[in-house]
Structure formats: C-alpha cells, structure tokens
DNA sequence: ATGAAAGCGCTAACAG
DNA sequence: CTGTTAGCGCTTTCAT
C-alpha cells in the first residue's frame, strides 16, 4: 500500500481530538467564539494529518465558489492576456479566483462557455464577446441567476450590465487625426465584416475626423474583411488596385496592420511612405520594421476596472449597477506614420 | 419579484412528473434502463424548467470534477498560450475541461497554484515549472492523491512522472551548428542564472557543438542573467566590452534575442553582421527586422502529447506511467543569421 | 465555547 | 423499469 487511500476530512480531525466537526469547521474558518486552545489543536492536527479542504463541498453548502468565470475570444492576443493578468492581480487578496474560457471568436463556443461556467457554479462572469456574437441571449441566464455579469472591450448594447470599454469613437478619431496631421490625405480603413460596436465606433470616429478636416469620405477606401495578418495583406492588395490609391491605411487591429505592412514592403511602398496605424499595441508592434504606430487600449486599466465593478456588485447585490467605465485610448506614434 | 429565486434541481423535475430523483438522474445521464417515454418527459421538463445541472454536487458525489488544472509560468508568452490552446483542442469531446493557473515565474505562486487546484478537486494537473522552481515537494501531494500529474517543457528530474519535453540538448546543438555553418566562429550565449534543465541542456548542446567543430569554448562568452528584452540588451552590452568580441549570439529565448538585436542595431552591428538566434519562435519573431532565426519548440505537438498522456493515465490508473515524450526541435532560418 | 443535526444537489447500491 | 436510501464533505441554525 502506498499510504491511506482516503483524504482526510474535518471528521478525521474531529475524531482525533474528540470534538465535533462543527467545532473543527469553526476553528478552521476563523469563527471568533472558539477557544484558543481548541483552535490551536485543530490547526496543528490539520497540518499533521495533511488536511486539505474540499472546496467543492464547501461551495455546495454555502452556494459560493469564489470563482469568477472569464470569457475571452483568444489568449493568443496579447491584449487579452494582459487583461487576464490584471484581473488576477486585482483579485489578489479578495479570495476570488479566475477560471478562463476561450471562445476562439466563435458564438457557439461562447454559448457553451457560459453554460459550462454556470454549471461550474461560478459566482460571476466577465466576458468579452466573440466577433461572431450578434445575439446575446445566452447571457440572460447569468442575469436571471442574479450573478454579476461584466462586459469588457467587446460589449453589446442589448445587455444592460456594467461595462468597461475603450472610447472607441475617440480611438478611431485619434488615429485618423494623427494621420491627417502627418500630411496624409486619402486614408483607407481595413475592418471586419462583423457588426460589433467596438469596430463600428472606430469607423465612426474615422468618418468624423475626415469630416472635421474637410476631407472627402471615399467608400471605396473602406474594406470589410477579416482581421489577421493575411487579411491585412489582402486588404492592401485590394486598395492598390483602386484608381485613386490611398496614401495611408488604418487597420482595425495590429495583426491586420502587420499584414498590411508586409505587403506594402513587398510592393516597395514601405511605411511611412504609405502610412499605417493599427489598434491594440500588441507585443510585436514596437519591434517590427518600421515600428507600428497604434492605439493603446490600456488592458491593465480595463482589468482593474472590471475587478472594481465586480467587487462592488458582490458587496451590494441589490443595487442594479449599469455603469459604464470608459477608458481613454492613447496614441502610440511610431515609425509607420511618421512622414 | 424578478422571477423565482431558487434554481431548478432534479427534485423539481421529479415532482413535476411524479417520479423520483433517481429516475430523473438516470434519464439525464443516459442510463440505458429507462423507458423512452420517461426519458423524453424528463428531458422536455428539464428544458421547460430551464434546468442546469449543478456540477459541484455531481462532482462531490462522484469524486470526479472532470477538470484538469494547468499551471504555466505566464500566458504572455505565445509559446504557452499555444500549448494551452492545443490542450483544450485535444480535450474536446473527452468531457474534460481546463482551468488555468499562472505562476508568473514565481515558486511561491506555483506552490499556491498546486494547493488551489487540489482544493478545487481537479482530476489531474499538467504543469510547466517556474524559473524559480528548484524544489518540487509541492507536487508530492498530487502524486499522493493518485492524481495524474504531467510535466511539460520545464520539468524536474526529481519528479517521477510522465513528461513532454523538447530535445533541448539537440535544440542548443542545432542552433550552434547553424551559426557555425553560417561562418560564425566566436559564439556567445545569453542564458538564465536559474538551474532549470531546459536551459542547461541547451547550453550543453552548445558546448558539444563547439567541441565537435573544434571551436574553443570561451567561458567569458556565456552570460548568466535574466530572460527578457532588457536582459538581452544588457547581455550584449557586456559582450561588447570583451576584448575578443563574439561574432554571434545565442539567446535562451526570443525575448532576450529581441533585446539583443535592438542593442546591436543601436551600435551599428545589425544582424546578421553579428548573428543572433533565439528559442521558442514567438509571435513576433518572424516580423521584426531583421527577422529572427529561432528554434521552434512545437507547442501544439506538446499540448497534444500532454492530452494523450493524460487520457492514458485516466484510463489505466494502475499503470505507473513514467514515459517521457521527446519533441524534436526545428530550426527556423531567418535573416538574423544569414550571412 | 461546543455539540447535534439538517441539508446543499446529486449519484448509485440495493430492492422491488 | 423505477423507487428507497444513504451519503459525498462541509456549513450553519438551534440548542446547551
């Protein structure tokens, strides 16, 4: 035999000390009305018997798992990895833990995620929607169960819950204005076909900036495709076949911008000859050549705000919190737009 | 009132249909000896009452959570994010889910992670050790509980469990041989002070390749520091103050290699003038300038192998599996070493 | 300060 | 094919 099979429970501790499980439970959980002697004995015995609490049982009984489910489109994007990191950091000391679910930009997978997390009895959910998510009914069960739900970055208006978002309009506006300030006059825009607000807001910001600067809006300049390195290349290909070729390109994320740059280099239009700016300030953006101008979305700040909202909601379950925290984007000027 | 407070349980379904919970439980779990009529009725009622199983209760009773805990140093490294991704992919359809824990390269945090996962009653653990981990006692409890433990990439010899690793010796050898083949003769090596096998094996490979090519080993050329962009810059600074300056640099990871390249560009020794090669084939490595030669560690293959091992162990708990799966590294030749 | 006992939601051995 | 019943390990109210 390689040691006893069964794990030690509070019953074992109780038996060992000739007291009851209630006393053990109290001693272990810091209940005040327990004599110091007893508490010491319990703690010592627990250690000696190598006791490890079964959180499952505790959660089943108390109805609280102290686990928060976080749904993100993908961990491969540094942006989301950073948010996760700051959420975990912010939660430190609160007793809450995070369990992660990746939707891989798929609606079906996201629906499954909500279901799984709910079945796992998480105490709340933080989510950033997939590109495919045009319907958010799958979140209604979270609300029905009266569990905190917080949306961040990729949100949906139909969901009347607290949100942490970037000022995406401003982000789009800032990127565009920056290009205009650099002397670019015919600015193209590569974005996604998916109708999710974050991207349409940025596009609105782009249009507004053009208008404010008395620059014409050329619909041909707006390419609706995917978001990836490949799509960036593809988009540039399309743009370069236009009669009136653009002199600058805004890509809805840094991956797409990277693809655009690669293609531009191949056709000898190396930025900043044609300006390129992206969104998200990905890990690579400062290191490619030319370095990529982009909009920083402050993931750490986003994570921190999510945690703040969550802890508030836990504290005051009754208050129907629907506040929206808006993060200010920052322009990162780099070589790809410095003409 | 915003609807009933309590969640529906199998009791509610049973009451609704005038049957017992056991029947409901069986009907829901696909138990064969249940009449089709009953099963249909149960499923229909479950749907109507918006039933969602409480996995906690089921796990408590059955002793199985169907959750695997995965411990990684950091999600910010694309390498680990990829492994996670392939683990989840490999697990699809098996009924197992992953919960993630980041050690942030800290031993204390890693110890905490094991404890937390065990308390959460995970069915097994897959782990890649932190840089600080020089002692692995915290994993003994996992083994004692007879739960599958699998180590990947960053492993430890003291742990007699199945492992999935890169052939790190070969990786180091290959990188070195490649530089030699390219005509470099005085090759430096930037690595970590931490004594973890993955890095010492690579270093051994480096030394062996030098010896096999009758090249002298110059201890001054080996810098023991940290692994980061900053450390890469710092390492180059140190190397450039040597009397006999190296003409190529191996960095123990791509981040360090990136830092090295940045510094070299500043002092006008742009690779491949001084060759630079890294390890891990990070997301940015193909896109920086010059593009970074590196050793691909096949994270997807690693994840897949981990899953395979895990499922085997679950299937056959008795067999003391201690097999080690060794992944072959691949050289990615890029501009930074092509002289 | 401590004990007794009920029960969280589910599973499964045993009966019928 | 279905019901009865006993727990999984813990928390918590009500006693004492």
Automatic annotation (TrEMBL), chains A, B:
SUPFAM superfamilies (alphabetical): lambda repressor-like DNA-binding domains (SSF47413), Periplasmic binding protein-like I (SSF53822)
GO terms assigned for molecular function: DNA-binding transcription factor activity; transcription cis-regulatory region binding
Annotated keywords: DNA-binding, Transcription, Transcription regulation
Occurrences of domain HTH lacI-type (ranges): 8-62
One Pfam family from the record: Peripla_BP_1
PROSITE patterns: HTH_LACI_2
InterPro entries for this protein: HTH_LacI, Lambda_DNA-bd_dom_sf, Peripla_BP/Lac1_sug-bd_dom, Peripla_BP_I
Gene3D superfamilies: 3.40.50.2300, lambda repressor-like DNA-binding domains (1.10.260.40)
Keyword DNA-binding: yes
Record's protein name: LacI family transcriptional regulator
Source organism (scientific name): Pedobacter chitinilyticus
